[in-house]
């Protein structure tokens, strides 16, 4: 066990930095949040060590900051550390442990390690279902993530069963127009497309896209994801014109940057700042919409 080596007053200041970082993240200020988290992390490791609830919270927050910045290596290390400590401190069936499992699963999806992502999402779903019940909102979020992970490893029928259950649950709790319901609809449509059931996939993704058009701006991450699924489905059905129109609608939002390599890259070969900002915006929005820290 670690013994505190800092005065209690200084520990309170470190804890205050964690809360300040949380508030900054909620406002989308991830760079400022990272600065607070880095300071708190160094101080907490030096004072109370990793085996502390505030240290775990700081690890999770800093990992989110790093995930948004695409620093996946260190984000993975912190997520793995947060999960190990959470299981030891709080037990395997605690909400904080489930959040750490979910975060690691999402990160593994981003890095292409789909098998590890599947294991983490499966563990999270099973634990939440066992402890919270099958229809609890966090359980349904995990069901959506688990269904997506099953699709990524090629278990399309398992993905379909999981996503159909998640969608039905979200509809029963939240209604048809809630963000969680719409995301589950998009994931199920993507799985149906992979199964070759293009008619149902087209109908579901088109209906969902119409709701996004009515309620979300054109650059909204979820709306763009739905447009992509619909475009791929239409292309598979031979409707290339409408599929291209959907693709062009997305491209037109940032055509001044993505129109050519000359405008996309700097002379050094790096992406231009606007392209980096757009990539960062997608990651930030993904975190805000619940793909991380559920």
What is the compact description of this entry?
Helices cover 79% and strands 0% of the residues. With 294 residues, the chain is an all-alpha fold. The chain is globular, with a radius of gyration of 21 Å.
Written account of the structure:
There is one protein chain. By secondary structure, this protein is mainly alpha-helical. It is 79% helix and 0% strand. It is built from 15 helices and no strands. The protein has helices at 8-26, 30-47, 53-68, 72-90, 95-111, 114-132, 137-152, 156-174, 179-194, 198-215, 221-236, 240-253, 255-258, 261-264, 273-288. Helix 4 (72-90) runs antiparallel to helix 5. The longest helix has 19 residues, at 8-26. The radius of gyration is 21 Å and the shape is globular. Mean pLDDT is 84; it is low at 254-272 and 285-293.
């Amino acid at each position: 066990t670690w013994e505190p080596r800092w005065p209690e007053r200084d520990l309170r200041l470190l804890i205050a930095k964690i809360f300040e970082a949380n508030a900054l993240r909620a406002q989308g200020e991830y760079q400022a949040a990272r600065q607070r988290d880095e300071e708190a992390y160094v101080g907490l490791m030096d004072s109370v060590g990793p085996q502390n609830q505030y240290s775990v919270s700081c690890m999770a927050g800093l990992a989110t900051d790093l995930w948004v910045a695409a620093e996946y290596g260190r984000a993975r290390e912190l997520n793995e550390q947060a999960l190990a400590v959470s299981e030891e401190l709080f037990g395997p069936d605690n909400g904080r442990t489930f959040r750490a499992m979910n975060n690691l699963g999402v990160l593994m999806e981003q890095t292409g390690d789909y098998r590890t992502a599947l294991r983490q999402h499966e563990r999270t779903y099973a634990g939440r279902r066992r402890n919270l019940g099958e229809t609890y909102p966090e359980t349904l979020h995990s069901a959506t993530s688990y269904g997506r992970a099953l699709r990524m490893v090629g278990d399309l029928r398992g993905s379909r069963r999981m996503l159909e259950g998640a969608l039905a649950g979200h509809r029963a709790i939240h209604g048809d127009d809630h963000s969680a319901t719409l995301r589950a609809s998009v994931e199920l449509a993507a799985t149906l497309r992979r199964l070759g059931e293009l008619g149902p996939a087209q109908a579901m993704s088109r209906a969902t896209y119409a709701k996004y058009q009515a309620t979300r701006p054109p650059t909204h991450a979820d709306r763009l994801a739905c447009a992509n699924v619909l475009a791929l489905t239409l292309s598979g059905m031979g409707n290339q014109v409408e599929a291209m129109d959907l693709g062009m609608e997305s491209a037109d939002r940032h055509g001044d940057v993505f129109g050519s390599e000359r405008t996309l890259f700097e002379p050094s070969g790096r992406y231009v700042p606007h392209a980096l900002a757009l990539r960062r915006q997608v990651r930030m929005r993904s975190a805000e919409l619940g793909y991380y820290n559920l």
